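so my prof wants the structure for this chain in the tokens format not the other one, which i didnt know existed until like an hour ago. anyway here's the sequence
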Amino acid sequence: MRVFDTFEQIVHRYPDKTALIYLDQQINYLQLRNLSLNAARLLSQYGIQQGDTCLICLPNSIDTASILLGLFYLGVIPVIINEQLAPTHVRIAAERTDCTLAIFSSSNKQHALAKETIQISLEELYATKNQLLQRCCANSNVSTTSFKNTASILFTSGSTGTPKGVAQSHSTLINACKSVAQSLNIKPTDSILCAIPWSFDYGYGQLLSTILLGICQILPSTNDPFGICKSIEVNQPTIFAGVPSLFASLFRGVSPIQDTECSSIRLVTNTGSTLPIGIREELFRFFSTSEFSFNYGLTETYRTSTLPTSMAKQNPDSVGYAIPGVTLSVITEHGSRAKAGEIGEIVHYGTGVFQGYWGDIQATEKVLKPTPVWNNEKSNAALAVYTGDFGYLNDQGMLYLSGRRDRQLKSMGVKVNPEEIERIMLNIPTIEDIGIISTPHEIIGDMIVAVVVPKPGVPEIIKELQRIVPTLLGPYMQPRKFFLLDKLPRTPNGKIDYQALSKQVFQSHNR
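here's what i got, hopefully its the right format
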């Protein structure tokens, strides 16, 4: 079964149901299908064929959804990247996936790509503005094609290294999307407010919920607090999907959220990284009648676990249980299965496992491989994702995260996970946000550095931190230097950009 085939079933079931709401536009599933077929016809005029790759560098919109569906129809593999990515990352994405066509929102967004890649803007694809919507009832003469197994490619955030293209199959996307809906009890009667870019796997999941499950999706006019709050009041979504940086902007920045009527929202979901305690408490207080779901997953796994809504307030430090179809294990550095409470690398098997990193066999083999602990339980032909995340399972099978392998430090001869330091220090009432980085030191190895964003109105806090931190952290985990910033640099997906943070701090310090 292909993504477009499943979408056709949804269209047949709900032809008149609203699929997407954007600004003052609402389109139903039948209209969305016709839009996508016309997009496929226009795209085919550029010579793009089944099995080709097409770079999509566009914001969330009805046009973008139609183009993505048109590519699925043609058997072309969309490579979905964020408009805010640096030119070097855009170029890497295009080169690694050997894109035949690249589509940008406007002609001045184009990049220095290979000459073989045709670059076009939305204006060039459609002769006049909004012509796509005017054609929504037109018939299509595009012939049906057979699809290759790869459905789409998303690039990792690149917060700790060079972004990699994650290839997912049609069957994986369909099955994983259904598993997540089952976990969160999402139904066709729901509507999702999506303020997350579709280039981020979590946002892409919201789009797939519309395409594959028949869930109405609401796209705010802007992804700032004012656009989000307006969409909540006007469109009354039942589900609000966010990430920590988005929630922080709502409750810590200039925002009308406190005056916004949000009673329609029955479920608030989060993924991307752990919510700071202060933001989490604000969410619980403001959405007091809503349920909550804290989730964990990688681009490589679609979604791994979710914390049941009934347990979110009692166990906020956990990321919950494996979603249906997923088996979770924690593997020690010796390759054995960890005991309950013992920290090791998290391994994901089953629903959601990606095909590999497009054009990077070596990187794929490091992450996608058999796991010895399931030899007698699972098919040896199947592969699991070694996530690079560390954590542990308790005796009830609930998952807790402790850090990333690619960020692991060695301080005073002891392996340290920076995320653990961040979580502990975020309990300090005067800290709004924090990023832990390091610099080489001839005696202690990796010298830990804390970059802190104080809460609004808090005066100089470095002396306070120097006094408090030794009471919270062992010597090998203590930051030796502190820097203050108004905000931390983040990737387009909302994660802390540790490469940019290190560059910003150490370049400034060495001036």
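also thought this was worth mentioning. The CA atoms of residues 139 and 481 lie 65 Å apart.
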